[in-house]
Amino acid sequence: MPIPADVTGEEIDKDVRQELQSLPKTLADDVARNLVMVARLIDEDPEGAYGYSKVALRLASRVAAVREAAGFAAYASQKYSEALAEFRAARRMTGHIELWPLMADCERGLGRPEKALDMAGAPEVHKLDKAGQVEMRLVAAGARRDMGQLDAAIVTLQSPELASNSVQPWTARLRYAYADALLAAGREGEAREWFAKALESDKDGSTDASDRLAELDGVEFVDAFDEQADDEDKGEDKGEKGGADGDTSSSPVAPVEDAEAADDAEGEARRD
User: 203-216: string of b/e by CB count within 10 Å (b at 16+)?
Assistant: First the structure.
């Protein structure tokens, strides 16, 4: 797969670079460049990231960082069986536990929520850092919802981290998940309160809490381009009627005004 000339491979994390030192230099550089592409594309183009991860995997399948990157790319592409296999391989190679919540979520993706719940109660969870434990709680709550256990999902999310007023990297997602579970259970008033709290703590826009709040408040968003298209259609209809009547002289400036309105709408849409 083609790699842009500005990608050198030096962009990767130094720990990953150190892992690649076990490879011949040329090979290590090739693998590094593919891993950079995985990182660049995984959010916007998961399938593209997956393609580069497969190249890296073919070149260096015995490097744990490569197996982990392949797992993330497969996970982002919803290839959960593949992702689980790669995460397991990376864990065997390193002995690290950080991937445990992702492995459990892969079980959910494969339609095995009971297995995800088993993993949520395993001793490995106690070895996770705080962020990992919160992630595991989110996965467990999702598994409960998969099984139709809405009340249990809500209780699962009720935790000191949820109640805390301090904002951590996981706070917005935890509050959002709690609000969403409340809404699914028909507790709309409480859900609105927690969507608002999620929005308040969502500094980087990791959730769509603002949209969910607007929906609850009955606010409808209209696409400016759709409005413009409707106006143009109406204008065409008027023009067709004028032609059929054989008389367009009654409003000679209408086409000019319509054009100016369309230009104004297009300018506003571009500024938005």
Answer: eeeebebeebbeeb
Please report the sign of the dihedral spanned by the C-alpha atoms of residue 47, residue 53, residue 58, residue 62: negative
Q: Name the token pair of 217.
A: 């408040």
Cβ–Cβ < 8 Å for 66, 60: yes
Q: Tokens 């696409």 appear where?
A: 223
Distance CA 206, CA 16 (A): 26
CA distance linking residue 140 with residue 150, whole number of Å = 12
Token pair 């992630």: residue:
135
**C-beta of residue 83 within 8 angstroms of C-beta of residue 102:** yes
User: Residue 8 carries which DSSP code?
Assistant: -
- How many angstroms separate the Cα of 137 from the Cα of each of 112, 155, 157, 201, 240? 16, 10, 6, 19, 61
- Span 185-203, mean pLDDT? 95
265: pLDDT strictly greater than 70: no
| CB neighbour burial string for 34-68, b if at least 16 within 10 angstroms, e if fewer | bbbbbbbbbeeebebbbbbbbbbbeebeebbbbbb
The predicted-structure confidence for 68-112, as pLDDT tens digits, reads as follows 999 999 999 999 999 999 999 999 999 999 999 999 999 999 999
Amino acid at 208: D
